[in-house]
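Posted in: Structural Biology > Protein-Ligand Complexes

Title: Requesting predicted complex, copper (II) ion in pocket

I'd be grateful if someone could produce the 3D structure tokens for the following input. Sequence and ligand are given below.
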Amino acid sequence: MRSADRLKSCLLQFRVSPAGLHFSLPHGLLRALTLLIVSAAWIVIAANVEPALANPGGITNIFKPLSQPAQEIREISLLVIAICATIFLIVAGLLAYTIVRYRHRPGDEVSEPPQIYGSNQIELAWTVLPLLIVFVLILVTSRTIADIQNRKPGPGAVQATVVGHQWWWEIRYPELGIVTANELHVPAGTNSLPQPTFLKLESADVAHSFWVPQLAGKTDLIPNRQNLMWIEPTQPGTYLGNCAEYCGTQHARMLIRVIVQPPAEFERWVAEQKRAVTEDSSTQEGRKIFFANSCVNCHTIRGTSAQGMFGPDLTHLMSRETLASGATLNTPATLRAWVRDPQKLKVGCLMPNMQLVDEQVDQIVAYLQTLK
Ligand code: HEC
Ligand SMILES: [Cu+2]
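-- Reply #1 --
Done. Output follows.
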């Protein structure tokens, strides 16, 4: 047979078995290649995409961990991927070799290959080898899991409680007497002097999941249960995360920000958050409207009669970069739009349109802006 014909038949068609199961190579190959390219492109895009509003601070990239335990998790996943990739390459390589080398050629006799039954060596090899590999994987994984789970808070550790709500995060620092929302401030450590923050995770309604990829793995927030996790960032900056467990309509707008600050800056933030609100007589009208409406049933302003727990604590609202769990930046215009009609900014969110007239909205917003 001419070599050109051979090449053509090799490229065009495989006849895999005498029963007549055959497929045409270019189609199969094309499909596989397209799938491979699309998935590779998707992974590259997904790993590097920067959610425009959501993350001015840095790229959320699971392959660029900047804190324990995310670094430890990355190392073990690379090891697992390396082992699995080696197995895949060996198996797929042998398979490809066999398909090409032993394909049906025109003129070949239609015959069954020799059948081998019950080779003890082969059976043993493919039972023992995988067992050993799985055993190694179990050992390294459980060591990492134990390392992460058995970590105990030392005397210097910051402790915070994060409560998932539909669709925002309540953040409490019981030891510091601070309550805030959606933006978790923690101090940065150094490699020689790590500064861990321990989180207790709870839920006020349905299951949520706390995930800030560059800091740690996902941990669920389950109603009537307390889960624990810790982070130990060393690089100051804003780390973006998201609720990672579908929790209803606005699940996608349930972003979490972790603001990692140098210790002195963190202390300053703590001092500011502990301060009581200062009353400002120029916004008395707005204050009156706030307290006359049911805002107080859902929101707390520490030191006042507003003690609602259903929505975010507003005591230091203006110290936050964003509103409504990262749905929008916190600017006078967006704050006004929010008070006017939160349903426009975050459809289905659990704060109702309060049906205020423009003048009332302006006055309430002026009052809210004193909550620094
Ligand atoms: C029925 C309860 C309820 C009432 C009444 C209510 N809110 Fe809210 N409010 C919420 C909830 C829930 C959120 C969080 C929404 C989200 O992020 O999904 C919220 C969020 C906010 C926020 C954004 C806070 C942040 O840090 O993201 C502001 C500001 C606010 N409310 C002001 C008001 C004002 C002013 C009133 C009265 C005119 C009011 N709210 C009435 C439940 C309520
Ligand atoms: Cu959620």
